[in-house]
Amino acid sequence: MGKTIVLKGRGAYRGVAEGYAMCCPNSIQGWAGVEAKTGKIIEKGHVHEGESFDGKILVIPTSKGSCGWSGLFQGPMDLSGVRPAGWVVKYADSKVGVAAVLVGSPMVADFEEDIFQYIEDGDYVVVNGDEGTVTVTKKD
Amino acid sequence: MVKLTEYEQKMLDGEFGRYKQIAMEHVVEFANVMGAEELVKISKVHICGACPPLEYGQSDDFDESFRRTYLWTKEPVKFEGYSPEVYVQTDGGAVDQYDPKPMYLPEKLYNLNHERELIFAEGGVSIVGSCAPYLNGWLPMRGETFMTTESSNVLFSNSVLGACGNANGTAACSWAAITGRGPKCGMHIPENRLASVEVRIDCKCETPRDWDIIGYSLGRLIIRQNNAVPVVTGPFHDVDIIRLKRMFSAIATTSGLEMCHIEGITPEAPTKEVALGGKKDYPVFHITQEDYDESERMLCDPGSGPVQFVSVGCPHYSLEEIRNAAAYIKGKKVHEGVRLIFWTSCSIREAARMSGYLATIEAAGATIGTNGCPLVQGFECYRGVTGMAVDAAKQAHYNRSWLKDGNMYYGTMEQCVDAAVSGMWEGK
């Protein structure tokens, strides 16, 4: 077990979820960014190109690009029930807000600090959308 | 928790029926995610066409498609139309209005689209099919609240028109069109509209393509600043609608920016100081010629090569741009085996027909496409394509995901027409 860090944000969507972090410091492009059936990222050159967000704690700065951004998540939900288990969002803009409603996974958002300084891929993260806390257990 | 008016509470309690109640439940949940304290009236909505260009929510049953795409419920409710208090106009859709063949789209989808447009129109939606609704009569005024499924329109309507709206998505636009409400947040709040950074343009800034590349570069820069609202400062000159719509669609490709002041041009930025709301201490960024060149390299593959598909007009061309394109292509002939499509709305296509531009374009072997572009009518259109040329950063950026290993070339309208005529992209 690595060391544990607790980050405080705003509880944006209720509930508690846990899982491994999938960090996308440049978010995901809002159109042609995700394969609808699988939730696999298809944005060219993305740090997680070819990987699905299914069951992950998705760590993003905010949305990016098209108003279709929430559709990146609506498609996998509609077609196969695939979704991020939870969200950690530096700044929740309204595209992120729509995605939160569609997906229904716990979300903590609007942090003072740079979340990417504290969370890395593969860290184990507990998102508490009721309390607005994110508990990060570092991988080693 | 968001506070509701008596009317909004009644809708949430189901007094106006389950259909409106479901939409209001989503609006309230959305407002709570945003931390909004109250709702705002939404008077204009711009929403994906009746056959939306989406991989999900597809069904032979319209009501089922509607539930899965526009309403988001598993309950067996039917489409009951949109509020007459809201003016709703269609954004792009999955199929051309007049001819599915140039995009290799199935006849079945084409017919289905016409059927569903009638249902949509009956439900209070004006069928226009354009990503540039501000060229087609959808014009929220300063302070008016709107929702749109088109990201470049968010920037245009906030920045140029001074209207107030956030980027949302298809479902949220539909909830707003049903209820006439959305969360009060983001660009509805005056202080959020103020600039907090300055971006100086220190690169060439003349043609619409320059503004496109500057937009792409600005988006790359501003996403790293968490989409902080910028005031763009010059030197620049001869700024027009064509340049700004190009710039905004490119910014909206590489960032999530919703408002962009341009000093001396946009209404909330008569001066840099006003746009910044009197802030004295703010970061200043520069878009240099190196940034411009780097963006250009990201958008256009190097060298020369054959092209089979040339797509021009993003955002949808204005009548002026169609006029310019017709003048350039007059007397030329598109190479055998190459498709050249100029994209615009149905109403502008009709004006182009009346003005003779459509005949000139078709005589050259090109077509005017409507209701969308490759990004929304894609999938099939890349069949057999090893090289594609476009005149917009947004198209170059997104089409790469679908084009897979094919070459993507990005240039001016004139370079694109030349490539379609010779069948070859002549690169540097």
Oligomeric state as shown:
heterodimer
| Radius of gyration of chain A (Å) | 14 Å
Overall shape of chain A: it is globular
Going by helix content, strand content and strand pairing, the class of chain B is alpha/beta
The Rg value of chain B, from CA coordinates, equals 22 Å
Shape annotation of chain B: globular
Please report the total strand number of chain B as a whole number: 17
First-residue to last-residue Cα separation of chain A: 6 Å
Largest sheet of chain B: 5 strands, parallel
List the helices and strands and how they pair.
The complex is a heterodimer of chains A (140) and B (428).
Chain A: E1 4-8, E2 10-13, E3 16-23, E4 34-35, E5 40-41, E6 57-60, H1 71-80, E7 86-89, H2 94-103, E8 107-109, E9 124-128, E10 133-137
Chain B: H1 6-12, H2 18-34, E1 39-41, E2 44-47, H3 62-71, E3 87-90, H4 107-122, E4 125-126, E5 146-148, H5 151-159, H6 170-179, E6 181-183, H7 190-193, E7 197-202, H8 208-223, E8 230-233, H9 241-254, E9 261-262, H10 272-275, E10 284-288, H11 289-299, E11 305-306, E12 309-312, H12 319-329, E13 339-343, H13 346-354, H14 357-363, E14 367-369, H15 374-377, E15 387-390, H16 393-403, E16 407-410, H17 413-422, E17 424-425
Parallel strand pairs in B: 2-3, 2-5, 3-4, 7-8, 7-10, 8-9, 12-13, 12-15, 13-14, 15-16
Antiparallel strand pairs in B: 1-6, 11-17
Helix pairs in contact in B: 2-6, 5-9, 8-9, 8-11, 9-16, 12-14
